[in-house]
Write a structure and sequence with these properties.
Structural class: alpha+beta
Order of helices and strands: HHEEEEEEHEEHH
Number of helices: 5
Largest sheet: 4 strands, antiparallel
CATH superfamily: Jelly Rolls
Strand order of the largest sheet: 1-8-3-6
CATH architecture: Sandwich
Radius of gyration: 17 Å
Helix content: 40-55%
Length: 155
């Protein structure tokens, strides 16, 4: 795929929509394009976070370990970034991501990701907004789960 086609793909991702073309070319050039078959694992809960992934096409399921086995907590599709939480928090991966259909990604190494954040304040703001939205959704789901437990007399 040409560098121009890669830049066009990156422009479709809201996180990069307003980024200068030269920065997108650099990102496309320095990132590793990876494909995953359906059922392939991108990373596992507890792994060391060394990169983030931009989902160019396809869908991943997000699962976390529980006493009764893995529980799928979300599905994430095209034009999203995944894996950034482990980089930002300097912590192990918080979930396992599995391709639920053929998947195309750009893998961004940790150093490159932090350089983007330093160079592009608007990207930093967009990531903060995304993380805030995820936290808000998690809080709503947790409150709903607590309400169900209380209603069932289990809390």
């Amino acid at each position: 795929m040409s560098i121009h086609a890669e830049v066009d793909l990156l422009r479709r991702i809201p996180l990069f929509a307003s980024i200068d073309t030269s920065k997108l070319k650099l990102l496309a050039f320095t990132s590793e394009r990876l494909t995953f078959a359906s059922g392939a694992v991108l990373f596992r809960e507890g792994d060391r976070g060394d990169s983030a992934y931009l989902i160019l096409s396809g869908v991943v399921s997000v699962s976390v370990a529980s006493p009764k086995g893995d529980v799928v907590v979300a599905s994430i599709g095209s034009n999203n970034i995944v894996g950034e939480m482990a980089l930002l928090g300097e912590m192990p991966r918080t979930a396992t991501l599995t391709a639920t259909e053929p998947l195309e990604t750009l893998k961004i190494k940790k150093e490159q990701f932090f350089q983007l954040l330093r160079d592009l304040p608007q990207m930093t703001l967009e990531i903060m907004r995304e993380l805030a939205a995820r936290l808000n959704n998690a809080n709503k789901e947790l409150a709903a789960a607590h309400a169900k437990l209380r209603a069932a007399g289990l809390e």
